[in-house]
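Reviewer 2 asked us to include a model.

Predict the structure of this chain.
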Amino acid sequence: MSNRGVSTSIHAGNHYENFPVASWLLPARLRSPVLSLYRFARAADDIADEGTASADERLSKLHQLRSGLLAPGDLSPHQVKREPLTQLGIDLGQQLAVCGLSPEPAERLLSAFSYDARFSPFDDEEALLSYCSCSANPVGEMVLGFAGAGWPVPPDLLSASNAICSGLQLVNFAQDLHEDLARGRPTLPRTVWPKEWGWSHGAFSSAGDIGHPEKIRVSVWLAERGLERLREGERLIPLIRARLPHHAWRLALEIAVTVRGGSAVGRLIQRRPLLPWKRSVRLGLLDFLGLIPLGLALLFKPIR
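Predicted model (structure tokens):
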């Protein structure tokens, strides 16, 4: 299931285009833990989504990641060398331990990839958002923990972070609609499906072409829900600037640019709702360059 943006992203298909990873904006001390998180999540995403492996084979490999995550100091160098997936789990587990963080958010992330490996459609919007709470929200929670927000992360920071992460996931589902449907993995809740769509014996089907009005309804539905959550989460940026340690403004700017990027994709889909039915929606170079001033404006937005 594709979550795919400033360098790459953390959860979904084209390797994470909506969650920036270790860009120059990120404070230097955060790059190592964030990169370990990215490598862990990217490996899990590849396992869950790519290739022709069976669900059992995918789940077995995800278990290797989990074993390393939960036992970062218990495996011998020989075992580590033989099991590179375990090493990725160990690396993230060690970064979490050094920062005094629980591995629980990373376990939730793995649960989303396990869902992907066994894929079945979301029954309703509540199920979709529950998936986002595992596939996307743990990333923001861990990054805030790495940045010194405290553990557990304070509720006001966490709720804003969750809104941003879920919003990015939903926009990603909208932008990669064509790709996910081609793989037989519709990311819309069944309550929103066009009447032509069906699911039987673990397989997706579409009985005939879908008219433009239905296609527009579907892509706009996803994009609008993503944009709503991104707006809700904007308050995180001034909160980070005001309350986290020195250099947190760089993290706040990174997140601000990411929010503006996700919002730009969502608005593009609103303007051209048939585009994601033809190809994955991506911003161009000029669009990315324009995100910096937009991010700066959001960075200094007053706390509401």
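The longest helix spans residues 248-271. The chain has one domain: 28-299. We have added this to the supplementary material.
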